[in-house]
Amino acid sequence: MKRGRALLLLPSGIVIGAVLVLPLVMLLVISLMQRNPNGGIVWGSFTVDAYVSFLWERGFSGERELNWDYVAIFARSFALAGSATVTSFAIALPTALWMAFQPPKRRLLLVFLVTLPFWTNLLVRNYAWMLLLRVDGVFEQILHTTGLLTGRLGILYTPTATAIGLTYSFLPFMLLPIYLSIEKIDRRLIEAAFDLGAVRFRVLTRVILPLSMPGIAGGVVLVFIPGIGAFISPELLGGGKSMMVGNLIQAQFGYSRNWPFGAALAFVLLALVLAATYLHRVRFRSAP
Amino acid sequence: MFRRLLLAAAIAAVPSLAPSLAEAQTKELKLFNWSNYMPPDLLKRFEAETGIKVTLDSYDSNESMLAKLQAGGSGYDIVVPTGPTLKNMVRDGMLLRIDAPKLANFKNVGPAFDKPDFDPERAYSVPYMWGTTGIAYDTAVTGGKVEDSWKVLFDPPASLVGKIGMLNAPGEAWNATAHYLGIDRCSEKPEDAQRIYDALAKQKASVAIYSSNATADRVVAGEVSMQQMWNGAYRRAKARKATLEWIYPKEGLDSWSDNFAVPKGAPNLENAKTFLNWMMDPKNIAEASNFLGYNNAIPASAPLLSEALRNEPAINTPAAALALLRPVSTCPAGSLDLRDKVWTRLRR
Asked: Are A255 and B168 inside 8 Å of each other by CB?
């Protein structure tokens, strides 16, 4: 019996080993090797240089100097992903509430509409936002004709545009889990709260929100973590002026030809995300 | 029994048929090219004339093309490196020898392009477009002509602050600044890197975007009013916006030539050669030039070029400006590292 169970678990074990553990081990090995100036690594040359470079990089003349650049890029990534998480939560919660209280047939249609953007490429959707935000773009023209604005909107190619792009890209990942958990709430509990004299706001804060906490927690994780690693939005909407971690890592495997540093950055990011997720779990486990 | 035997024979015959079928089906060519660097209609005509199906992927810098090839298993048959990159690829054994002079149409290649310093025997490459990296700007915004100098890009007048577009590649930013400051582009001196970084950091406040894609669209839309630009992209923009002007900076500017080459491990070498030969036909290369707005290396295509192209000084470089062209060359690794550092620091 026990052997049979072990055999049944084997396929998933192989999959986890092949697509999760193996690449991570490869990444770890690469991060501990010397770089080849033409790209790639020098095999069998152990060094922790890549990790040291995160804080003490070699300057133009080759001497080590304390350098906060990479810390700043990480901080920016966490801030932008955090703001996207907060904004998308603020949009997703009322939307999910409204959706969950529609007739069942319409609910299906609404869920379908939420997933509709996934039918097109993320790149295309970012370009669409460029058309909306650009000089003489759709938003500016609307604001001009309605007289709400006379000058330039001036949002495109700023971190604000990056935040808008991230919020838009990841909103469905916040909306769907929250919607699902609200939809599953036993309606009788809500009716009971009203019968016991609770006002609408109280029902929301004392009944609906606590019961939809699993969905909210899931949404936060699904938006925040991919948000940190985003690299299309900062490049297109942010104008390539302020990197996020994703751009930095991509550059190491691209034009900078510094694979070990790119791999080391990926590990630093992984450690930070794991720490954040752990704190998050502790926080939500103690929640009512 | 006999019937069953026949069936078995038929089944046994299928695998032996399969290879020849597969061969007939691999009339394919995987092209890895700069974005917007090949007219779609031209590829369609190539497919129609040769029966070879082309798939096209694109990149936006030599560095990202190299990175993808070095990652391995890309399966591309043709890539389009700029001269110095091509030289490095030959040195690193990344390319297949194709002996271009043995291709029938190589006789059409002009004298300036048949023995380039980066591939003197043309053993590995066939010329495609050549051009310059200069500055384009909108006279409607500046209110007239500006000085023919890199100074306007790095220290722009008030009307251009926040409306500067820079190309998104370490080499482009570094070279432009080196011309501006009179520094050797291949410098390995830390103090030169510091000066270049300082100039770029000072300029950053005026820059709207660092991007090498769709520069023409941004200039035409008025999102940027001055752009570090490839001359062919400028030509396309100028056709849509007459108030644009081109600058040959008096300090000198990069000239470059792109080349078709076949990476090691290309699955369809013969199809690649067919394509390379086809692209040296004056009619075909003229069509590419007319679409892209870049000059090419096939003199016999000149009568087939559009009048607009022949009359455009940014493409048909005037004699006086020819003296300002500085062909890009291969820099030592130390210099390349410095420009990476400058670039990362700039965009932190």
From this structure: no
Decide if domain B133-255+321-346 falls under CATH 3.40.190.10: yes
Q: Which residue of A has its CA nearest to B205?
A: A241
Please state which CATH number belongs to domain A69-257.
1.10.3720.10
**pLDDT band at B172, cuts 50/70/90?**
very high
Instruction: Name the more confident of A161 and A117.
Output: A161
How confident is residue A281, by pLDDT bands cut at 50, 70 and 90?
confident
Confidence of residue A1 (pLDDT cuts 50, 70, 90): low
What ranges do the domains of chain B cover?
22-130+256-310, 133-255+321-346
Q: Which helix (H) or strand (E) holds B209?
A: strand B207-210
pLDDT of residue A268: 92
Instruction: Give me the pLDDT at residue A41, please.
Output: 84
Task: Give the closest residue to B131 by CA, choosing from B258, B312, B239.
Answer: B258
- Which residues in chain B touch residue A60, judged by CB atoms under 8 angstroms apart? 190-191, 193-194, 197, 338, 341-342
Chain A within 8 Å of B207 (Cβ-Cβ)? Answer: yes
Query: What is the b/e burial string over B266-298, where b = at least 16 CB atoms within 10 angstroms of the residue's CB?
Result: bebeebbbbbbbbbbbbebbbbbbbbbbbbbbb
Say which of A62, A240, A258 has its CB closest to residue B210: A240
CA–CA separation, B231 and B321 (whole Å): 13
Identify the CA nearest to B169 among candidates B296, B74, B65, B246.
B65
User: Are residues B223 and A257, on separate chains, in Cβ contact within 8 Å?
Assistant: no
* Closest approach of B129 to chain A, Cα-based (Å): 23
B22-130+256-310 CATH: 3.40.190.10
ipTM of the complex in this document: 0.79
**Domain-wise residue ranges, chain A:** 69-257
What is the DSSP-derived secondary structure letter of residue A157? T
